[in-house]
Every structure is written in structure tokens, then in C-alpha cells.
From TrEMBL:
Pfam families: SGL (PF08450). Keywords: Hydrolase. Residues 33-287 form the SMP-30/Gluconolactonase/LRE-like region domain. It comes from Rhizobium indigoferae. This is SMP-30/gluconolactonase/LRE family protein.
Length: 303
């Protein structure tokens, strides 16, 4: 990559995935804490959350930025289901919602065993329609990203919402603060970040589980740790490489957990997604701004 200061190449495989002449573009600034980027290929736009400002924003390739939803109920993580509908985690409502094609909002989950959820953080949808989400306490720790409150759940869990019955099951209950999550490209594994180190002297790693019958998890094991900051949101490319947020940028790990390299970003990164017509553009939410950069690999998310 010559003297390009954006990249820190630890492995030649990373060098083959990045474009030396591609620059890191700041698409928008002026937010307080950006999160939850999600690409809409059919609408040719990027949506993301500006949590403390309680709004969701929209960017289009002509450079136009507009407010998509305000108030947003302090939405954090977003994704799309296989029907293209927006699925969001609301700190303010302590719930997971789906935006229908007519704009109405359906509540998918707001409680577990008769008690309110903590503050749903990030969400992914399996090809069978099951909705999986993390539920740390970040949104109820203060009034900055939600509404300060005492947690009602005794643990910080990862949940699955059944697509047929709507039943909610806790699939993992031993995280300090579960955060980002994503399925491997073939959906045989689920990766979950523990960002407990953001508030405690504890894990800053990503764990991986085998997905059993699309419903439960088994074979819990360590995948990787960050050497700077803690993992928040992440996504996979089609080759199974994991691209995760970090305090110094984006870190890329191979399927065996090897750190291949870093993409340096001037602000602390919260999350990322692939997008653009060819899904070869990495969109990055980082503190007050949204950035993008073209790379040589393709994102694995759907639709």
C-alpha cells in the first residue's frame, strides 16, 4: 500500500482486500453518537442512528443528507429482514421493532418473562425469519442515550424471537454486556461481541457459537480480542472475514481469528456495514460522523 497511512497491514491477505488509492471519505458530520448503519440497495440510501439526538438519518449517493425519523425513540442498531423491512433496537422504548412497508411500526419484543428488556442494542435476522438481538444496559445507564432506569432483567442476554409464534427465548445469558452480533455467511455460526470493558475491567472480545437448527446455540468459544478499545458492531464479507469496530478504526479478522489488518479512522468507530450497488463500499459510523471507503471484497449481508 506504499505510504498510505489509512492501512495497517498485518497479513498479505488484508493487502489483497484493500485499495491503495481509495480514500476514506467523511460523508456527514454533526451527530453526537452515530450507530446502526444499514444499507437499502432498493432505495439507494444509507440509514443510521444518531442516538443522543434521538433521530435516524438518511444519506444518498448524491450527497444529500436528511432526517429519516425523529423522534426515533433512541434507536441504536438496525438491520433488514429478508423481506427488506427495517428492524431496529430502541433504547427509549426498550424494545425491538419492525417498520412495515406502509411505515407503521410493529413491536417484536419488549419484555421477557414478564419484565421489561434492558435496552436492545444490535439485531440480525436469520434466513428463517428468526430475529436475534442483544440486550445490554447501555440505554438505561443515563438519560443521554435513552431513559435512566434500573434493569429489570437479572442478566444481560442474547435473545431469539421466533418468526411464527413470536415467542422470545434467551439463547445466551452469561455476557457482561453483549453488543454487536452477526451470522457467518453460511449461518452455521453466530458471533457476539462482549463490550463489558467499556464500563468494567472485563472482556473486550468476540465469541462464536454453533447455530443448531436455526434456533439454539452450542459450543461456546473465544474468537478474537481487540488490542485497542472494545468491539461494538461488526459484519462479514463473503469470504468469512470479520470486520469489526474498534477505538482506532476497523479491524479485520480472518475466519480463524487472525488479525489481518486495520483501517484507521479518525474517530472511535461504533459500527459498520457493506453497501453500494456491488456491496463493496464499507460504511462506517464513528462518533460524530459517517465515513465510507471502497474495498476489494463484498459484504455478505442480505438483502
Amino acid at each position: 500500500m506504499g505510504d498510505n497511512p489509512i492501512y495497517e497491514i498485518r497479513d498479505e491477505r488484508f493487502g489483497a482486500m484493500v485499495i491503495g488509492s481509495a480514500g476514506l471519505e467523511e460523508l456527514y458530520s454533526g451527530c453526537r453518537w452515530t450507530e446502526g448503519p444499514v444499507w437499502f440497495s432498493d432505495l439507494n440510501c444509507l440509514l443510521w442512528s444518531d442516538i443522543p439526538n434521538e433521530r435516524m438519518m438518511r444519506w444518498t449517493p448524491d450527497g444529500t443528507v436528511s432526517v429519516f425519523r425523529s423522534p426515533s425513540n433512541y434507536v441504536n442498531g438496525n438491520t433488514r429482514d429478508r423481506q427488506g423491512r427495517l428492524v431496529s433496537c430502541e433504547h427509549g422504548g426498550r424494545r425491538v421493532t419492525r417498520t412495515e412497508t406502509d411505515g407503521t411500526i410493529t413491536v417484536l419484543a419488549d419484555s421477557y418473562r414478564g419484565k421489561r428488556l434492558n435496552s436492545p442494542n444490535d439485531v440480525v435476522v436469520h434466513s428463517d425469519g428468526g430475529v436475534w438481538f442483544t440486550d445490554p444496559t447501555y440505554g438505561i445507564l443515563s438519560d443521554y442515550e435513552g431513559h435512566k432506569a434500573e434493569p429489570e432483567q437479572p442478566t444481560r442476554n442474547v435473545y431469539r424471537i421466533d418468526p411464527t409464534s413470536g415467542a422470545i427465548d434467551a439463547v445466551v445469558e452469561d455476557f457482561i454486556q453483549p453488543n454487536g452480533l452477526a451470522f457467518s455467511p453460511d449461518e452455521t455460526k453466530l458471533y457476539i461481541a462482549d463490550s463489558g470493558s467499556a464500563k468494567h475491567d472485563v472482556p473486550r472480545h468476540i465469541r462464536v457459537f454453533d447455530v443448531i437448527d436455526g434456533r439454539t446455540l452450542a459450543n461456546n468459544r473465544y474468537f478474537c480480542s481487540l488490542d485497542v478499545g472494545h468491539p461494538d458492531g461488526f459484519r462479514f464479507d463473503v469470504a468469512g472475514n470479520l470486520w469489526t469496530s474498534a477505538s482506532d478504526g476497523v479491524h479485520c479478522f480472518s475466519p480463524d481469528g487472525t488479525l489481518l489488518g486495520k483501517l484507521r479512522v479518525p474517530q472511535t468507530v461504533s459500527n459498520l456495514t457493506f453497501g453500494g450497488p456491488k456491496k463493496n463500499r464499507l460504511f462506517i459510523t464513528a462518533t460524530r460522523s459517517v465515513y465510507s471507503i471502497y474495498i476489494k471484497t463484498t459484504g455478505a449481508q442480505y438483502p
